[in-house]
Amino acid sequence: MLTVTAAAPGKLVLAGDYVVLLGAPALVLAVNRYALVALREEALGGWSIKSNVTSPANYASLDELLTSDQHDLITRILRQLPNLTQLPVHASLQLDSRTFYTPQGKLGLGSSAAILVAFAELIAHLTQNQLSDSDLIDVHNALQQNNGSGLDVLAARKGGLTRFQQRTAKHTALPSGVFMRFLFTGHSTRTAAMITKFHALRNTYPARKMNDWLDAATHTANAVSSKAAFFESMHELTRCALDFDDATDLGIYSEPHRLALKQAQRAKVIYKPCGAGGGDTGVVLSDDPAKLGFFEQNITKHGLEMLNLEMSSHGAIIQ
User: Fold this and answer.
1) Positive or negative CA dihedral for 261, 273, 17, 204?
2) Cα(78)–Cα(97) distance, integer angstroms
């Protein structure tokens, strides 16, 4: 009997959070937490789906699954394909994104995008029909009320560090001598709600300051060939995001993020929330590992959890 497993990595946004939605570039890091999608051909029983985030479901046939709205992520991918005759008549499907969560909630690593990309990779392997980057972004956006940019989808597909802008991602690299650590704030963020609130608030913010924020994101994405220029741009980018948050009360820098920011200033390193902020994950950067160690010692004393995350060198794969 046929058995196939696909894996896709999660992501963290290093630069360009929020303003990527307005056309600015973002630096996106694929990380070594993987969503797994496993398909096993069965002798009988139609199609069954098990997931760590939804209730199990059984369908008498693939056609019945295609008419269901319980597993939109699965059915939207399948409906994009011209021919499904190469898929098994009976199969069990397992969706596993447990590494994207802690007991306190999600880490904000893009679990739904990673599951979607892993499933698309698995189906492409079985049917020889691979969806385009744009198609995958469209499917995921439909699931996210069209709130996203698509950067999490392409990070999961391509892996590594990418420069994302307007639905396109290209591999890049940080300057030599840039070191990073990651922490979890202890609670999760409702990203879609934060994005909706951002769009409502940005029109109340002075246009000049908003343009400064977009420019800072562009400068940071362009500064990857110079360590000094990169850190200078990151300082400016984090200042712009903090200014916006202070002026609008969006909530990017929640209490845990502000605590981490204070400790980062004490350690003379750069700290910023990743993605929507509020909760989820943050990144601390420096060219001095000793300073990062000092930050880590202090931050754990205040009850925040450091995460063992590294760059995933690959995107979606068949295992």
Assistant:
1) negative
2) 20
User: Which residues in the chain show pLDDT less than 50?
Assistant: none
Q: Looking at the whole model, is its pTM more than 0.85?
A: yes
| All residues at 6 or more sequence positions from 197 whose CB lies less than 8 Å from its CB, including other chains | 250, 251
Contact 158, 147 (CB under 8 A): no
Q: pLDDT for 14-59, tens place per residue?
A: 999 999 999 999 999 999 999 999 999 999 999 999 999 888 999 9
3-34 as b/e: b if 16+ CB within 10 A: ebbbbbbbbbbbbbbbbbbbebbbbbbbbebb
Sign of the dihedral through C-alpha 21, 36, 173, 230? positive
Question: Distance between the two ends of the chain, CA-based, in angstroms?
Answer: 17
Q: Report d(CA 7, CA 249) in Å as an integer.
A: 38
Enumerate domains of the chain plus CATH numbers: 3-172+312-318 (3.30.230.10), 179-307 (3.30.70.890)
- pLDDT value of position 297: 94
